[in-house]
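We modelled the chain as a single entity of 275 amino acids. Its sequence is:
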Amino acid sequence: MLTDVEQRVKKLKSQHKSIKGLADIQLDLIKRMLKWSPDQSIVPSVEEELKADKLACGDYLIKGWEDRVDLSFARCLFYELLQWDGVGKAKRGLKKFGKTIADEEVDALLWSGLTNDEPLFASFTHRYELEPDMLALLVQYSLLPTLNQINKEWTRGFSIDDWNQGYCPVCGSHPIMAEYRDSEKFRFLRCGSCACDWVFSRVGCPQCHNRDYHTLDYLYREGESKYRVDVCEKCHSYVKGVNALSAQEYPHLLIEDVATIHLDLMAQEHGYSRY
């Protein structure tokens, strides 16, 4: 997989020299993630009936089962990402943070991200004087390979076709982008935290569930048919979209996110916010 990602990054840098630095940083991130990607042995077993009952109630699968998640790989990756160039000017503070924090505290920090425990997360940013957005990103990326493995195991042979929410049916996170497949007949939302993919209406807003096509639109760059940005005039949110033959693995999603940064800028210039 890494070879394919490296080739994609090389092509991306040759086509868009302005994001060469960002592409290199993202590639470094992916290499560190792949180093600490667990196998299926860490995934807790859950009965199909219990999963079906959860989704039927509108609950994402991992909700209430967070204590079953093995955080050992995520903890190791968290320490690894403290050295990632993507943290920018925060590297010095994070390096100091990494030397003073105990494994139990790292697990508590990861737990705050897993359970969306905002007070617990805030206690770390205040105590160690860390920038919240950067720390949240590190927690999300540290958990991603582990949650991705859980997603693969829990959805293998288990249908999530009836899930029609705008948040992930596995971990509850927002989509990083959408994939248009089968000649753009279907829109699949892709989770930014576990890479789960689920079908969502082409005419609909994932954030506010607006279905009025008069207030739904899309933006695109002239001459670029692969990418688009779906926007909602009701809640002013947007989701980036890419044409794809099949579901991309999470390293490729992360590269696509960088490749489409111009779409983020375009949407934000028009007054939309990322869902």
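As a brief sanity check on the tokenised model: The chain has two domains: 36-155, 175-274. Strands lie at 175-181, 186-191, 197-200, 216-219, 227-232, 237-243, 273-274.
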